[in-house]
Queue: 4 jobs
Job 1
Amino acid sequence: MAAQPQPKRIEEILRRYPLAVSVVTVGRGGAENALTVSWASPVSFDPPHLMIAVDRLHHSVSFLRSTRNFALNLLRAEDRRLAGHFARQSMLGEDKLEGLRTREATTGAAVFDDALAWFDCEMVDALEVGDHVVFIGRVVDADVGREGAPLLTTDAGVAYGKSRA
Ligand SMILES: Cc1cc2nc3c(=O)[nH]c(=O)nc-3n(C[C@H](O)[C@H](O)[C@H](O)COP(=O)(O)O)c2cc1C
């Protein structure tokens, strides 16, 4: 029987998986937290649902569990700086959204005026899978922002891995 690849090797191979990069905002009445996410996908048309996978050690997990809502903002190729900005753990009292053009969507989560598209979601389920928690959200509102090409994890210098998280 062939040797199984080690988890570290699988993590390296996973980096070849082309995924869109988004910023997920969490909270009602002004985002309480925001983080860069690439492990995200639509999972149902009718009714529309999305999923996001968040490392169970990330601060955002407790926010997501308590507020039970999130908005997913798809980034454009020129938003690489934002991907880095929202991949930093928030500092106490810091407003990560300062300077960005945002507004409050139906659930109270912040959506970006300049996103390629955004989806505002009420959480309906949370499933623990290995070291991540998969949050399923029902899409209650969505819109397009600015036209452009998407930012992808296969673009140079944009990746998600344990070594960076
Ligand atoms: C391109 C990119 C994609 C990322 N995708 C994810 C992801 O899908 N899930 C996740 O938990 N973290 C992901 N991260 C890491 C988080 O954005 C980062 O750890 C962030 O600081 C977590 O915020 P928090 O600790 O305030 O929750 C990604 C980072 C980058 C740069």
Job 2
Amino acid sequence: MTVTDHGREVLNFYAGPTALPWTVRAQISRDIVDFHGSGMGVMEISHRYVPPAAAVRPRPGARYLHLVTNNTVEGTQFRALPRVGVPLVADMSSDLMTDGFDAAGCDLAYAHAQKNIGIAGVTIVLIRKSMLGKIVARPGELPAILDYRTHVSHRSNYHTPPTFAIYVTWLMLGWIEEEMGGLAALGRVNRRKAATLYDLLDASPFYRGLAERDSRSVTNVTFALPTARLHEQFLEEAGKAGFVGLAGHRSAGGCRASLFNGVTQDMADRLTGFMAAFEQRNQTREHRDQEGSSDE
Ligand SMILES: Cc1ncc(COP(=O)(O)O)c(C=O)c1O
């Protein structure tokens, strides 16, 4: 959460780029001017210096199966990775490093950093060595930069990478390990944040959760208000109260609260507090409206 120069509180629920932990942002602000006492700003330093950082079936004859482990738009997530008998390639852009995961079930996983692991500019790729031998393109048939073999043989230093974005990822990994107590502990925190929202949706006759219960995402909670008018009013009042980024994806509509690693339990509690109060006020008003119209 942030207090702006104008003293206004902002609680960032955007779907990415999105909230970073406060301590990571504070460290960035120090390191921009002087990176760990080096006398150089982090953007001035060479990259050589930066620390290393079930129902799914493939088509017959498929060489691999690609899936998205967490659907950021709909707010759905695979509970477990399917075992499909062909290599599994997973876009984990919205849930890698939010909890432990079944790495053994994955042959290639990738995730951009700007949701849970830093800022835009970095994509993390995990590739099984055996997969490298399955690449059918001969050297030179693929542009070198698009060929994973290039990046493996150059130890991810083939070209000048976005050093600042990698530096923020490094800070995020340290934050996960040292401040959050590791991935399993972080997973518990993230599941509790999500449960805070889902419990409210389940108990409410006013809000409607949009994802099926068994497929609910831990990182993106999607829901709808009873009417279009209440939807608009909800977003407007939420904005005034400092909650930003709650509109659903343009292709899905409704509302969405994204609870990525940088979003705290306190922020989730305050959002549910706001939602409960909004429901209370507007249920009563709707009720009055209905009574008013029946009098006519
Ligand atoms: C799961 C997932 N994959 C891919 C993307 C697209 O990412 P990029 O804009 O980095 O290509 C998004 C967008 O937010 C996403 O949520």
Job 3
Amino acid sequence: MLALGVSGGEEERNDVLIREARADDHDVVERLRFSVGWMSPDTGLAAMARGLSKVYILEMSGKPVASGALVYKGDDDDLADSRERGLISNLIVDPAYQGRGLGSRMLHFLEERAREQGYAQVTIGVDAVNTGARRLYQREGYRRLKDKLEAWGEVNYLYKPLEPIPVDTA
Ligand SMILES: CC(C)(COP(=O)(O)OP(=O)(O)OC[C@H]1O[C@@H](n2cnc3c(N)ncnc32)[C@H](O)[C@@H]1OP(=O)(O)O)[C@@H](O)C(=O)NCCC(=O)NCCS
């Protein structure tokens, strides 16, 4: 498949399609969480149904192999306040497909969606023990925002300023 670019919140390139999750993607989302050892039940689709976030699925040759979400509004306004900033969450790549750029692809896709929302920055939380993911985010320009002790352990929250989408004055 050739490059079709980004439009309407969907991206298709080189046999990789990123699409919005549907309400019946529950099993897909749970399977991806399970594949990386996340045992807690997903709350992303329910938040999406309430208009608080949007969940995306990345398919390779029609197989769902990654997911990610952009949270518009959460509990903590430092992370997602629906005006200035949104939170990237639930970034998951099936272990069999890791290390080939899909996590970065999903990250960039979610940053674009945040820019479209008009946000000035995105935030992301990474478990303090998850040095691999933090390395990826730091390389992508994320900086330390704050640390928080969540129910499952210490989490480092990072942020990245977004370039505004240029206004076409022509
Ligand atoms: C983090 C994650 C989404 C990255 O996806 P990916 O497709 O492997 O990422 P990419 O191929 O685009 O980039 C690879 C980079 O990820 C980072 N990385 C993340 N986890 C890693 C791990 N366990 N081991 C090594 N590198 C890791 C490294 O920086 C690596 O870059 P490098 O190869 O130059 O060292 C994926 O590892 C994953 O799903 N992990 C489990 C769930 C998770 O921790 N999600 C993040 C929550 S904050």
Job 4
Amino acid sequence: MKEEDIRKFKEQIEESGLNPVVRTIEVGDWIKNAERTKDDEAGVGTCWREYWQIFTQNDYPTRCPFCNDTLEGEIVDGCHIKIDEKRFGLSSRKWIEGSFIIPGHHDCNIAIDGECQAKIMILAVEAIKK
Ligand SMILES: [Zn+2]
């Protein structure tokens, strides 16, 4: 990531006054699609994928957290998800309040029926809408 971009992102964060929670999702953590989010507009940036980049200042991953297949170019979507508070191995889940954004295939996220385990480690940014 270019220093110039990082500087721009920091300015956008400061202007917005937003301070979303950023969590690390580990491989094997349970995640699921957050429903009823399609009309939500990102609190900062032009879209949710840009929103993720503004707050993480990271490049998009080259693999999709849902399916582990190649993720690149315009196909990268800012996906709304819920994150399990517990670790895998437990039969019941407790979903952390609010929804979070991770980059991934849109089709993979909406295809999740119930829940799935993350295939890569990825930062998730709390989704704060406009
Ligand atoms: Zn995928």
